[in-house]
């Protein structure tokens, strides 16, 4: 079966009757609002340049207003490419409803236009807050909360629907933040359906060329296109290091041996220089017990053998424990020194580095 999404519905909440195709649309009827182009033009003041939020690989995103004043993000495909990604995204998102996923409000396909309308996430991408210019640093607890929510969102995708959903492009660019700095998962352009949720782990092979983001690809995916829930876990492990180090997964400005974050992580764990690698803003602010737990789970997520990587549920629970350890240490510190900021001395860490995966540098730009 080339495209398993054709056999919708796959979500547990939906009634199991065959869905009829919507006239003029690739989406099943009744799952998603269909906007007319006139409505989109009205919402974006005719795609006014002042309303552009940003540009991605396949589309330009505008801030828009619909109906009774609801603010939305409107993504307009800006080239002849990306049609398959737009379709895949809308097929998945119109059936997935969860507080930790950016909601798809509707779509528009008219006169060669392909447009998706999303819930508006006012603070944009996590990547910008970690290493973009001009952003105030996120506190360690904010970072932990974001990681916990993102892990929970992925856990839902892997286990909460009738068929597992493999996100396939888990990156800091695809985690968006709202006004309260709560995060949601974004972008389902290359997602795949996995196996029936009660059966064993999914195994999907990408038949065409490998699509993904350099620096986040699990070795088995980069080598032979094998996608499982554990490829998402691997990418999430990369994110955990990014959150701690405050740097991109691939940084071309660095020397070759430090270009990929996992090489940097491995090196700094082996040499005991983790504090040197950390985002300078976080130095002394992370309690050693919390950091140890965090490094332990991050290291397990990027294990080269996918069977050794934890499931997202375990990742979520371990991160919650890390947050608890931080809270406890802060409370103890505050009790002894009520008037000063909680600052911690450097400690040694035991996180295993032996089984870190080789970075996907050999597959860069494939
Ligand atoms: N729902 C949304 N609410 C607010 N801003 C959004 C929303 N979706 C996207 N954006 C913003 O629009 C810009 C482009 O996002 P988009 O997802 O299209 O591309 P991207 O993040 O560059 O990734 P890619 O390279 O995968 O296309 C980003 O700055 C992003 O923060």
Question: What would a concise description of this structure say?
Answer:
The chain has 366 residues and is an alpha+beta fold. The chain is built from 10 helices and 13 strands. Residues 53-59, 61, 73, 75, 102, 118-121, 124-125, 173, 176, 187 line the site of adenosine-5'-triphosphate (ATP).
In DSSP terms (H or I, runs of 4 or more residues), the helix count works out at 10
Assign the structural class, choosing from mainly alpha, mainly beta, alpha/beta, alpha+beta, or little secondary structure: alpha+beta
Strand content: 15-25%
Radius of gyration: 21 Å
* Largest sheet data: 6 strands, mixed
Portion of residues within helices: 25-40%
Features:
366 residues; 6-stranded mixed beta sheet; 13 strands; 3-stranded antiparallel beta sheet; globular; disordered N terminus; single chain; alpha+beta; binds adenosine-5'-triphosphate
Topology:
Layout: E1 33-34, H1 37-43, E2 52-55, E3 59-66, E4 70-77, H2 83-93, E5 104-110, E6 113-119, E7 124-125, H3 126-131, H4 140-159, E8 163-166, E9 175-177, E10 183-185, E11 192-196, E12 204-205, H5 219-224, E13 226-227, H6 229-245, H7 261-271, H8 274-277, H9 288-301, H10 312-336
Helix pairs in contact: 4-6, 4-10, 6-9, 9-10
The structure holds adenosine-5'-triphosphate (ATP).
